[in-house]
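In response to reviewer comment 3 from the previous cycle, which asked for concrete evidence that the modeling workflow produces usable outputs, we include below a single protein chain processed end to end. The sequence was submitted unchanged, and the resulting structure tokens are shown without manual editing.
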Amino acid sequence: MLVGVGIHPELERMCEYLKDNGFGVPIKIVNFEVFQFENGQNVLIREVFYERDIEPQTTPKLTVDRIRSWAKEEGVVKQFDRFVKIAEDSGLAVQPQKASVRIAPSFDRRLYLMYAQPRPGKLYLEAGAGQFAKYFSVSEKEADEALNDIKGLWSGKKLDGKLDQIQKFLHKNQSRIRSK
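The workflow returned the following structure tokens.
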């Protein structure tokens, strides 16, 4: 809300800028003027100079199923589902992101452990080996040796091999990963 005396030309320019550049800001410029009759009575006149109401934008809620549908479109749904199942079976939290899923410890979902993003015909994987060592009873050397070459775009047998690698590491360390 901006209140002032009169309508400055710069206000009109700013409203046009906000409108033309898609900021989605509801804008209304209302001008009030007071007129006084000869008998002393005041009349308030309201003039709507500019009005632009915006419907609230509803962004579809991100879900793992929504990311899964993208994986299906990209032809990697089987591997995507396997990645999610591996994480869930290890007691880790699977969280939807803008165009991917992030794997975090169940005790603190703000932390990052792994990441998967569907791409055309491939799945981008990343694992924070150091993160496993930092938050779980896993040595940094062990985590690094097991996960350091996970990062990248993978497809076919190489992707299956990377998923095997993740699964083996998580299965071997499952008891150390489930709790803080």
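The mean pLDDT is 82. We consider this sufficient to address the reviewer's concern, and the full set will be provided in the supplementary archive.
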